[in-house]
Amino acid sequence: MKATLDMMSFQEPRRKKCDCCDRTGLIRHKLLVAKAGLLVGDLEFCQDCARVMAEIMAAREVKEEVVEEWDFAGGGAGHGESVDPGR
Ligand SMILES: [Zn+2]
User: Fold this and answer.
1) pLDDT per residue as tens digits for the range 27-72
2) What distance in angstroms lies between residue 57's CA and the mean position of ligand 1's atoms?
3) How far apart are CA 11 and CA 27, in angstroms?
4) N or C: which end of the chain has fewer CB within 10 A?
């Protein structure tokens, strides 16, 4: 099941609390979170947070395949092996 994120802009910005930074200001964007074509929920963002989210979403699109193949359980080759828990 593929999750999707869609950033939408309000026609009329509204003054309320941003779901990301908790500051009250002009909310200009809403992020719709869906899974398998069904709406899961939404988040409303101020201009600054929307810009950051857009960057994260753009990076996610590019790196998605790599992220999914990441093997966290295997650890990094050579990384962390020099740490001695007995010291
Ligand atoms: Zn914000």
Assistant:
1) 999 999 999 999 999 999 999 999 999 998 888 776 655 445 555 5
2) 16
3) 11
4) C
Helix H or strand E encompassing 8: strand 3-17
CB 53 within 8 A of CB 31: yes
Give the Å distance between the CA of 46 and the centre of ligand 1.
4
Q: How many residues does the chain have?
A: 87
Q: How far is the CA of 54 from the centre of ligand 1 (A)?
A: 13
DSSP code at position 84: -
Tokens of 59: 């990076």
Residue 74 in this model has a pLDDT that exceeds 50: yes
